[in-house]
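Reposting from the mailing list since nobody answered there.

I have sequence plus structure tokens for a pair of proteins and want to know whether others read the tokens the same way I do. The first protein:
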Amino acid sequence: MSTANVPSIDQLRELALPAPPASYWPQTWGWLVLALILLALLLAGCVWRYRRWRRDRYRREALARLDELTQALYEPQGRLAALRELPQLLKRVALSMPAGEGAARLGGSQWQAFLERHGTTPVPADFAQRLALLAYAPAERIAGLADHEVHALLSASRQWIEAHRVAV
């Protein structure tokens, strides 16, 4: 018996991989142009979203402060200060809006009209009066407010802050 015809393990070679059935590179310029257009639209959408996120920073900060005020309402020593700050918070939000400088002078029915004009949901008819009550009434009168009235004011304030329209 001859050992020359017996294959050995040293003679084995790895098989070459077959070529991919289709190239991932676009075959025509049309697909490349379409990909570039889609990429540009995606980039433009990301830039628009980022600018909107930056523009609404005041809104996020106001909602965070409103959450803090809501928590302070459950503490007896912080209730009065939290209720007094609510009208200030809404005024600061109005002033932070683009072109909201005119809101600084508003009060009474003009302030109510401003809140209604910029809100997407209707605000209570006496909302500005209640805010003025919180800002200027004696502490005893504010302490006598019922919980449901306070929660209605907080709810209306939250809705207005979250969804007010900003004319740019």
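The second protein, same order (residues first, tokens after):
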Amino acid sequence: MTAFRKMHGLGNDFVVLDARDHPLPVTPAVARGVSDRHFGIGCDQFIVLEPPGPGANVFMRIRNPDGSEAGACGNATRCIASLVADELGADRVVVRTVAGDLPVERLPGGLWRADMGPARTGWREVPLAREVDTLHLPIALGPVADPAACSMGNPHATFFVEDLDAIPVAEIGPRLERDPLFPDRANIGFAQVLAPDRIRLVMWERGAGMTLACGSGACATIVNAARRGLTGRRAVVELPGGPLGMEWREDGHVLMTGPVATSFHGELDLSAFG
């Protein structure tokens, strides 16, 4: 049996396994099975902790519920940082991902602030299938059009809308995720700007569907909103699961502040899902 921990950041939930001391037989099929909310434990992302190598405190490997590997997950980054920081008795740790090293620090009130790295706005960096202006993608479907795109270690497109409640996210999200302009598919955000420092956001996550919160999506949203001149470089992003504090610094890095929580611990038989 293998020990696991169920954690979440604003309802964006994760099954966390620890493979730092010995490898675990985790395959895409195992990730799909464990992530299934009816036949497994259920989660938005499946996380495996691995040895980091020099310069970091832990390596975080991220899989989506469809078994595909993700490069970044902001809410999981905070959760994993809190675990490792408590182990070390530290207030600052570095979480390594396939997208880069992410420093995270403990703040008062149970909050954690993660430096999610620089936003990448070039069309090749997102990536897109051809050269287009990443501030105005030639994509439209139903009531949405003209998204902006950037990469936060994973590809994001943000549609700015007048009335978020009028958008059929579950209907159009999967079609937009697989638009031919996105060779690696994309996370799709639907954002309503409420004020220069407040944005309401609903995400359709690549490989996961609708989630209560998406940290990298909130990062992409503040970047794309500020690039469009819709907000300043600091804002609260209100997600269905709760708010995240966002800042797009002048050096290009995006800071994300929010809570973490552990739901429960348990054991599972990985061979049952292989």
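Reply #1 (J.P.):
I read it the same way you do. Residues 74-88 form the longest helix (15 residues).
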